[in-house]
Amino acid sequence: MIKQKSKLIIVVSEDWSFWSHRLSLAQSAIEAGFNVTLLTKVNELEKKIKEKGINVININFVRSSKSPLIDLLNIIKLICIFRKEKPDLIHNVALKTILIGSLAALFNRSAVVVNAFTGLGYVFSSNQFQAKVIRLFIKPVFRLVIRRRNYWTIFQNPDDLNLFDNLGLIEPDRSMLIRGSGVNTSEFSQTIDINETPVVMLASRMLWDKGVGEFVGAAKRFREENIKAKFVIVGDIDKENPMSIPITTIEQWVSEGYIVWEGHSNSMPEKLSSASIVCLPSYREGLPKVLLEAAAVGRPLIATDVPGCREIVKNGENGILVKLKNIDSLYNAIKLLVLNKEMRQSMGECSRELVESELSTNIINTQILEFYKKNTKQ
Questions:
Q1: Cα dihedral sign for 336, 338, 340, 346?
Q2: What's the rounded Cα separation, in Å, for the pair 139 and 144?
Q3: pLDDT digit string, tens, across residues 128-185
Q4: Using CA atoms, how far apart are residues 19 and 29, in angstroms rounded to an integer?
Q5: What residue ranges in 77-123 does DSSP mark as E strands?
Q6: Residues 53, 211: contact at Cβ < 8 Å?
Q7: 209-268 pLDDT, tens per residue?
Q8: Cβ atoms of 269 and 187 closer than 8 Å
Q9: In CATH, what number does 199-358 get?
Q10: Taking CA atoms, which of 2, 114, 171, 361 is between 20 and 30 Å from 268?
Q11: Structural domain boundaries in the chain
Q12: Please, what sign has the CA dihedral across residues 239, 244, 246, 249?
């Protein structure tokens, strides 16, 4: 008798996010004998994802909080899909999707639900009125949903786990710490920095809470002090996020000569290898993928001393942690590395060693697959 494959449904807001962060996990699950289906907003990657042996179902997810009717319709759609597909495991990724997927999964009690927080984002990091109102509403929903017996929670850093525990939003014995989504150490191979003038890079979506403003402020200081360094920003506009930076502001920074803005990149291994130093002065993270990738190619890191960033930046070893929203602290850290090539090289080597020993996709995927197998027939 042929053993029936366990069904895994992965729910991610957009196909590009799945492709960059969860594809290797899905492939590992297929190799382990799972039938994998992705529920996501399909943009341009549907064909590529299907070619990897993954079933794809299009859902019109909207990441902003301004479309409650669409969110309600998506919950109904997910209820219907879960009933039809009868998954053994449902893996929801990121806060908004966790809310929608968890509510829909209430109507499919046979499935084990895994909710993977990738950071708490705008809702928990911002003190804006809108964020406070959203927090007020979602806290009781979390208490109602993700504390249920068949629901498990994954956090990428201990700060987020402890926060949710202190707020009474999770069951500690059904919560896990798995540090990020890992990085492919073959794709992101270690390279040598060959820049004569150091290149300082920030790679992220163009959001204020990624510290882009502080990065530009540090770049201005370098120009005023006449210290040679090139400041490069890689990343696209994210119009759905309340913290999105207007394109007119970015264009002004470029026209004033403080930064080079290269927009979105589909070749991050090469892009990060072109940097001498990689910065992320973010206000809060899960465990930032870009710092993992930068560490893998052997670059020194500079990031804010906040949850998520300090999971990958070991201060004084593979990089420097700086004060939150503090241009002076960021400027001094960048200056120290720009003027010290040997320190950059030494920290870059430590970055690569950290990834290889603790944070590769093989290590992270193995941890998640062990949980999958333990809770299914595989």
A1: positive
A2: 9
A3: 777 777 778 888 888 888 888 899 999 999 999 998 999 888 989 999 999 999 999 9
A4: 15
A5: 89-93, 112-116
A6: no
A7: 999 999 999 999 999 999 999 999 999 998 878 899 999 999 999 999 999 999 999 899
A8: yes
A9: 3.40.50.2000
A10: 114
A11: 7-182+360-374, 199-358
A12: negative
Centroid of chain to Cα 134: 21
- Are 117 and 160 within 8 A, CB to CB? yes
The answer to whether 83 and 104 are in contact (CB under 8 A) is: no
Task: Evaluate the CA torsion angle 135, 307, 24, 189 in order and state its sign.
Answer: positive
Distance, in Å, from the CA atom of 160 to the CA atom of 167, rounded to the nearest integer, reads 11
Buried b (16+ CB within 10 A) or exposed e, 150-175: ebbbbbbbebbbebbbeeebbeeeeb
Identify whether the C-beta of residue 115 lies closer than 8 Å to the C-beta of residue 153.
yes
- CA-CA distance, 42 to 378, in Å (whole number)? 29
CB count, 10 Å around CB of 75?
A: 18
343 and 300 in contact (C-beta within 8 Å)? yes
- CATH number of 7-182+360-374, picked from 3.40.50.2300, 3.40.50.2000, 3.90.1150.10, 3.50.50.60: 3.40.50.2000
The tokens for 347 are: 């920290």
Nearest-angstrom CA–CA distance, 172 and 185? 32
Largest CA distance in the chain: 74
